[in-house]
Write a structure and sequence with these properties.
single chain, Nucleotidyltransferase, domain 5
Length: about 160
């Protein structure tokens, strides 16, 4: 892979994994929980600012991949995901950074062999590949990044 790639698991606790053009991988979880006395839109502004900081620190993103969630357990989760996705795609469009959603089942199937694997199985799979995620959000982002490396890199050859 020749360009820097960012993989995201969007949510209040957004998991992220960044693969630099030199093959170096960093990852973590960024928290966008609303703070006390903060308006509802502030978490989205903090998300966009974080993206811009990551973009600058990485020396330009070549592509962004995100976990494409089609079903949510609650209305609040659906609203948050939709808001983060809207800001992410607009941010990418503004900077001409290509982006692509990848279905959850595709990521889980690649990581564990089962499209309906549980969170613990994904965490274990990522750890077996040599990473040490601090939580399931970071593990999901790493699993997505591994899917990108294994499938998209091969497709470019």
């Amino acid at each position: 892979m020749t360009s820097t790639v960012l993989a995201l698991d969007l949510g209040t606790h957004t998991g992220w994994a960044l693969r630099q053009h030199d093959g170096t991988t960093t990852s973590g979880t960024e928290h966008f929980k609303p703070q006390r006395f903060e308006g509802g839109g502030m978490r989205f502004l903090r998300f966009k600012r974080w993206l811009s900081e990551l973009h600058s620190a990485s020396g330009e993103l070549g592509a962004v991949y995100f976990e494409e969630v089609r079903r949510h357990t609650g209305v609040d989760a659906a609203h948050l995901y939709g808001g983060l996705l809207a800001h992410l795609t607009a941010w990418c469009e503004q900077r001409q950074v290509p982006y692509q959603g990848v279905p959850v089942g595709t990521i889980k199937r690649h990581a564990t062999g089962r499209g309906n694997a549980g969170k613990g199985e994904v965490v274990t799979s990522v750890r077996n590949r040599g990473y040490a995620p601090s939580d399931d959000n970071e593990a999901d982002a790493l699993a997505l990044l591994l899917w990108v490396i294994d499938t998209q890199e091969a497709a470019q050859c």
